[in-house]
Amino acid sequence: MSTAPKDLAETPMAEKALAIHRRLCGVYGCPIPYFHDLDPVSELISSLLSHRTRNADSGRAFKALRARFNDWDSLVTAPTEEVQALIAGVTWPELKAPRIQAVLRAVQARAGSLDLAFLRDMPVAEARSWLEEIPGIGPKTGAAVLSFSDLRMPALPVDSHHHRVAQRTGLIGPKVDVGPAHAILRAQLPADWDAQKLYDNHEILMLHGQRCCFHRNPACGACAVLDLCPTGQARTESRRPDRTAALHP
Ligand code: SF4
């Protein structure tokens, strides 16, 4: 699945990725506690709900589904309008309701049941491929199922915050989309990193995007990785008063 060169972990970019990881671990405190302890199918549903949606809203929608259905098989056969009404608080409920049902139907067809525990016995790349062959499951959802669920497998999800910080710090190019960024960013980190370390890497870059490297007006002056970030250096440089002009008005 990975299109990134295998020796990327030995490049200067990998050194930079490690330097950023160490620095941000110091800021946000690694190891970061896991925020979920769901089985993989529940995590899959949670992840599909969360796309472009605030955590609080997708969390409420997930709880509403849990409260309504005794098991996820019942969700698959429920009227789609009912599922849509239950998840009305997320973005695009009219798209997500049929998509969730279709994805779960595909899991049933391929795995024989709504049980993804068998993924634990696969190498990560194989488990990701298995998931991503299902229409509606992209690299982020596949990695989230493996990393965030109780499978606790070493996969690296990349959300929009993580992606933004990676682009601004130059870990990935400005035109690399979220999907392809997964393989590149994973390949920059040591191959033998365990699930917790990769989870930490995702979480600290995501937290940094939420708390410092804002979509608009990143707080570069207060950023712990300013010296490693070409975007931040360019921004702070351009805001510095022109001393030549001050000396020679
Ligand atoms: S220096 Fe600025 S642009 Fe770079 S990571 Fe920090 S906040 Fe983001």
UniProtKB/TrEMBL annotation:
Domain HhH-GPD: residue ranges: 49-211
InterPro entries per record: DNA_glycosylase, Endouclease-III_FeS-bd_BS, HhH-GPD_domain, HhH_base_excis_C
Keyword presence, Hydrolase: yes
Transmembrane domains' residue ranges: none
SUPFAM superfamilies: DNA-glycosylase
Cofactor: [4Fe-4S] cluster
Keyword field: DNA damage, DNA repair, Glycosidase, Hydrolase, Iron, Iron-sulfur, Metal-binding
PROSITE patterns: ENDONUCLEASE_III_1
Keyword Translocase in record: no
Domain of life from the UniProt record: Bacteria
Family: Belongs to the Nth/MutY family.
Official protein name in the record: Fe-S cluster assembly protein HesB
